[in-house]
Amino acid sequence: MVDARGMVRRRLGLRLWLSGGWLVLLALAALLAPWIAPHNPLEQDLFTSRLPPFWMAGAEPGYWLGTDSLGRDVLSRIIHGARVALIVALIAGTATMLIGATLGLIAGYYRGWADMVISRLIDIWMAFPPVLFAILLIAVLGTGLTSVIIAIVVIDWTRFARVVRAEAMAQGAMDYVASAQVAGQRRLGIMLREILPNVLPTIGVLLTLEMGIAVIVEAILSFVNLSISSDDPTWGGMIAEGRTALHRSWWVLVFPLIALFLTVLSFSQLGEGLKDRFDPVLR
Questions:
Q1: Closest CA to 166 of 194, 202, 130, 190
Q2: Residue 234's domain is classified under what CATH number?
């Protein structure tokens, strides 16, 4: 039994370190992009178009992952595209968490009319197809990174609100909440000092999942040219370009797709690992 628990613990720790390591590496690459990117991601040179990665015949030194149809360095564009992905993930994820978790806590603990109003609002909001809703919002707000972030926040706050509401209801029925009420604590103080700390592990998991979802949504919108300018490097834009020339230059599609997959997977696994590590119930 002890060996089994130790094996599970080591596996969870490895998952946490691998996912966290990839995200830290990605964040450092995004921060240091102007200095570590081999080339200007916007620089075009038709004489070096569709160069293969360094291990294939016909590659040229300095273009480690090859070039696209306009001669732009794929590695440099992936590194600079990571900046867009992480900016959207951090800002949209944090704003979504603050709005959704706050409404969920209020609805789950105060119950009554507050719960009724917030729950009906959640039901109405979730009736709209998220992708179509995002495209509609972008059409109204106009393209750009700010519009993408606003669209993600407007659409995804319901996920936090529903889960946090259920957790707050469950925690509100615990004995420690009843003890705090008997001790004369105010309801706002109970919600912030007693319930919120016990809901934080769930909020942390939802935040990391939301960051991964935000990266996917931004990639989808840039894929259909509804994010930032099509000339600026984004993973979705690179995937859209590579899709049209897959048989001639597969690396333009595959490498940003791998970066997108690893980033979303790392956000998901990081959230699960943090929950397993810090959730007092699981511990």
A1: 202
A2: 1.10.3720.10
